[in-house]
């Protein structure tokens, strides 16, 4: 194992082809076609199932849900091996939420794959680990650069590292907001049906808040995943209500959840949970200890509901991903 060298120090041409600056690997990952022809799809090495967590808008709690859902999955009785992949290239927040801001650069295997960075018993990979530290570095990429970086993060991570050499039962992917290059690349390159030995079964969860501005984008998110043949496992309404310490009545601070349920029905997608607004969820996220781990205190009534709802989502998602391939036709 060697230490990953500092990134973004390569020539422009090298950067374009290899944005993460990884050494050449023996196995060539699938390539995005330049103009025509279908891309070569494949599974993600050492990963059995993938769950993409997406949203139409930023700031709705997608990364928070990703991390807490990953722990809820890991805590199911089947004791799944779970990893988190942060594909939010422009705004990675998994290092913060996992308490890994000072983790340093990932190590590389001898064949040049990235080794996941682990905390609280979960393996993670994020663009955040690959940016030079100490300055406010912004990724200013578009088009092919983003596609290539996503390709490297999908196929050039050795998920057997950090999971006792076994690989992962499920990889939870924190997607960037909106309908851009990243979901397209995922849909183009990853075999989603899980019907061959090398395939990986993929599902997705779309997170929204109750406001109309967020809701409009949920429909776009569903339609985007359908276009790239990634099955939508269900929707999560986050910050749906607030329960104060003095009463058990839900306060719908951002409006009634009815419109969200109507939209879900219209689009024929299940609602997996309504998650309350819980101050501790935010506080613990900022301090790098996911709420699923830190537990809840009695003054925070919504916290218990949050954790139970998250457990319910984990059970539903895992059950759905066990089903035989759907053979989505478009
Ligand atoms: N249910 C919730 N209760 C309290 N705070 C929340 C909840 N969901 C998200 N937050 C907070 O909202 C902010 C945005 O969440 P984040 O997960 O970063 O959103 P996104 O990934 O969609 O941009 C964070 O500060 C997070 O802690
Ligand atoms: Mg985020």
From TrEMBL:
SUPFAM superfamilies in the cross-refs: P-loop containing nucleoside triphosphate hydrolases
Signal peptide feature range: none
A cellular-component GO term for this protein: mitochondrion
Biological processes annotated in GO: iron-sulfur cluster assembly; mitochondrial respiratory chain complex I assembly
Stretch list, region Disordered: 20-43
Source species, domain of life: Eukaryota
UniProt cross-references to InterPro entries, sorted A to Z: Mrp/NBP35_ATP-bd (IPR019591), NUBPL-like (IPR044304), P-loop_NTPase (IPR027417), YlxH/NBP35 (IPR033756)
Keywords from the named record: ATP-binding, Hydrolase, Iron, Iron-sulfur, Metal-binding, Nucleotide-binding
GO MF terms held by the record: 4 iron, 4 sulfur cluster binding; ATP binding; ATP-dependent FeS chaperone activity; hydrolase activity; metal ion binding
Keyword ATP-binding among record annotations: yes
Family: Belongs to the Mrp/NBP35 ATP-binding proteins family.
HAMAP family, alphabetized: Mrp_NBP35
Protein's name according to its UniProt entry: P-loop containing nucleoside triphosphate hydrolase protein
Natural source organism: Guyanagaster necrorhizus
């Amino acid at each position: 194992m060697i230490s990953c060298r500092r990134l973004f120090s390569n020539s422009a041409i090298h950067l374009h082809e290899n944005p993460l600056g990884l050494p050449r690997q023996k196995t060539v990952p699938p390539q995005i076609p330049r103009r025509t022809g279908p891309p070569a799809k494949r599974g993600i090495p050492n990963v059995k199932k993938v769950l993409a967590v997406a949203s139409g808008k930023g700031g709705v709690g997608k990364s928070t849900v990703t991390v807490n859902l990953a722990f809820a999955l890991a805590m199911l009785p089947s004791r799944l091996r779970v990893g988190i992949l942060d594909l939010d290239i422009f705004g990675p927040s998994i290092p913060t939420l996992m308490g890994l801001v000072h983790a340093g650069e990932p190590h590389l295997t001898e064949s040049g794959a990235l080794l996941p960075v682990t905390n609280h018993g979960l393996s993670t990979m994020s663009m955040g680990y690959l940016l030079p530290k100490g300055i406010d570095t912004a990724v200013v990429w578009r088009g092919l650069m983003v596609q290539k970086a996503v390709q490297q993060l999908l196929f050039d991570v050795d998920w057997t590292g950090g999971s006792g050499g076994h690989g992962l039962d499920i990889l939870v992917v924190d997607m960037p907001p909106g309908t851009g290059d990243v979901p397209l690349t995922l849909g183009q390159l990853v075999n989603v049906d899980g019907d061959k030995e090398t395939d990986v079964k993929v599902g997705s969860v779309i997170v929204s808040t109750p406001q109309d501005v967020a809701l409009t984008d949920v429909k776009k998110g569903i339609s985007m995943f359908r276009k790239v043949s990634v099955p939508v496992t269900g929707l999560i309404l986050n910050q749906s209500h607030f329960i104060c310490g003095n009463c058990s009545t839900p306060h719908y601070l951002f409006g009634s959840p009815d419109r969200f349920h109507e939209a879900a029905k219209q689009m024929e997608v299940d609602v997996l949970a309504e998650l309350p607004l819980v101050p501790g969820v935010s506080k613990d996220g900022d301090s790098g200890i996911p709420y699923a781990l830190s537990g809840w205190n009695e003054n925070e009534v919504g916290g218990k509901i949050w954790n139970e709802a998250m457990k319910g989502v984990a059970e539903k998602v895992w059950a759905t991903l066990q089903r035989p391939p759907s053979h989505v036709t478009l």
